[in-house]
Amino acid sequence: MKTFVANVVVEIAKDGFYSCYCKEEFEDFALFGYGESASKAKEDLLSSYKEIQETLVEEGKEPIEIDFVWHYDMKSFFDYFDFLNVSKVAERAGINPSLMRKYTSGVANAGEKQYLKLRTAVKEFSAELLAAEF
Fold first, then answer.
1. The dihedral of CA 3, 9, 15, 17: what is its sign?
2. pLDDT-derived band of residue 50, with 50, 70 and 90 as boundaries?
3. Does 1 score more than 80 pLDDT?
4. Which is it for strands 2-12 and 32-35: parallel, antiparallel or unpaired?
5. Are residues 75 and 12 in contact, defined by beta-carbon separation less than 8 angstroms?
6. Ramachandran region, residue 122 (left: φ > 0; alpha: ψ -120 to 50; beta: rest)
7. d(CA 27, CA 22)
8. Tell me: the pLDDT tens digits for 5-18?
9. In the 3-class helix/strand/coil scheme, how is the chain assigned residue by residue?
10. What is the pLDDT of residue 120?
11. Residues 40, 66: contact at Cβ < 8 Å?
12. Model confidence band, residue 36 (pLDDT cutoffs 50, 70, 90)
C-alpha cells in the first residue's frame, strides 16, 4: 500500500464556515471538507477520503494510505480543541489573554511572532499530555 503525507489546512472562511484542504495534489483525486465547525469540516474531509478508498478497492486498485498533518488557523484550532481554555493557553504562551481572545474571535490578527509563541506553548503542553498517565 502506498503511503503519503498530506498537510491539511483547517481554516475559517469569511462566511463563518470552516474548510479543510490538502496542500498536496493527488493524481486522481482532491480532498476537501466543509462544515459549521472545524470538527465538521474534518469529518467531511475524512468521509471523502473513506469514499475514495472504497472506490479504489471497488475498481481493483491499491488503496492509498494517507498520514494527515493538520494545520489550523487560530480560530479553527480553538474551535476544534474547544476543551482548551483560551486565556490559560495565552498565559502559557506569554500572550495577553485579552488580546488572545481578540485573535480567536477574529477581531484582531496575530503576527508571526505571536504564532510562534503559541506554537511553542502547544508543543510543550502536547508533550506533557503524552507523558501523562492515570
1. positive
2. very high
3. no
4. unpaired
5. yes
6. alpha
7. 13
8. 999 999 999 899 99
9. CEEEEEEEEEEECCCCCEEEEECCCCCCCCCEEEECCHHHHHHHHHHHHHHHHHHHHHCCCCCEEEEEEEEECHHHHHHHCCCCCHHHHHHHHCCCHHHHHHHHHCCCCCCHHHHHHHHHHHHHHHHHHHHCCC
10. 95
11. no
12. very high
- Closest to 110 measured CA to CA, from 77, 69, 85: 77
The three cell numbers locating residue 70: 493538520
In this structure, the chain runs to a length of 134
Q: What pairs with residue 72 in β-bridges?
A: 10
77-115 confidence digits (pLDDT tens): 999 999 999 999 999 999 999 999 999 888 888 999 999
Do β-strands 18-22 and 2-12 pair in parallel, antiparallel, or remain unpaired? antiparallel
**pLDDT number for residue 106:** 83
Closest CA to 110 of 119, 102, 122: 102
Neighbours of 42 (CB within 10 A): 20
Q: What angle do CA 95, 22, 41 make, to 5 degrees?
A: 70
pTM comes to 0.85
